[in-house]
Design goal:
Length: about 240
């Protein structure tokens, strides 16, 4: 069970990227070109993936070191946090120094990605010490729903405050709300309805991206949640 879970994460950087809104797949290259395991010189997603793969233990090298229970639990917590659109945070003690989490900017497509990658190389051989793998997510595919939820909450708070106001600002606030609602009347009858519709559309995109990831994992023979049922074959 332990090895199965960690092999999933090793494959994520070549299987998840096409499923979270990026039009780029990972590129694999042959030999390590330097000792910078942080891949700081990588400017595109392709070059980052190639650099990471170059520094991973090679097949047959027995370079995989099984994580303990605390490391597995912390890895799951970090991945879940990344999927909630968080990045550049402090890693748990069990992963600190072994892994690095950072925002990566792709100079080719202008997108930001959150990257969890292994960086420790104690013997200086240019290969990471544990072979735990890499997780990369394009949070742009996930952040829209969260931001729209914030906008809806902010709008509700503004309307509530305007309705409770009893001084001279009440009329101006209510007029501004009415004016904004009229501006968006063609989009669903009110500004709030427009935000809700956009939020629901973003949630559908997020759900489809997640299902495509799980479908890809199932095709590769990797772990998926017990509840997941792959779509029936087409045709």
């Amino acid at each position: 069970m332990r090895r199965r879970f960690w092999l999933i994460t090793t494959l994520l950087f070549v299987s998840v990227l096409p499923m979270v809104g990026s039009d780029k797949g990972a590129v694999v290259s042959g030999h390590a070109t330097g000792a910078d395991l942080t891949c700081a010189s990588s400017a595109t997603l392709e070059s980052l993936a190639a650099c990471i793969r170059d520094h991973m233990p090679k097949e047959g090298s027995n370079g995989f070191v099984a994580p303990n229970a605390a490391e597995q639990a912390d890895w799951r917590a970090v991945v879940n946090r990344m999927l909630q659109c968080s990045c550049d945070f402090r890693l748990p003690a069990s992963l600190s120094g072994i892994m690095q989490v950072k925002t990566f900017f792709d100079s080719d497509n202008g997108r930001n990605y959150c990257v969890l990658m292994e960086v420790r190389d104690e013997n200086g051989n240019g290969i990471v010490d544990r072979g735990w793998g890499t997780f990369i997510v394009n949070n742009g595919a996930m952040v829209a729903r969260s931001e729209l939820n914030k906008a809806i909450s902010g709008w509700d708070a503004a309307v509530a405050q305007a309705n409770q106001t009893r001084d001279f600002t009440r009329k101006a606030a209510l007029e501004a709300i009415t004016y904004l609602d009229l501006r968006f009347s063609n989009e669903g009858s009110s500004f709030r309805a427009y935000l809700v519709n956009a939020r629901d559309t973003a949630a559908q995109v997020e759900f489809r991206a997640d299902m495509k990831y799980k479908h890809g994992a199932r095709i590769l023979g990797k772990w998926t949640p017990e509840w997941y049922e792959p779509p029936p074959p087409s045709g």
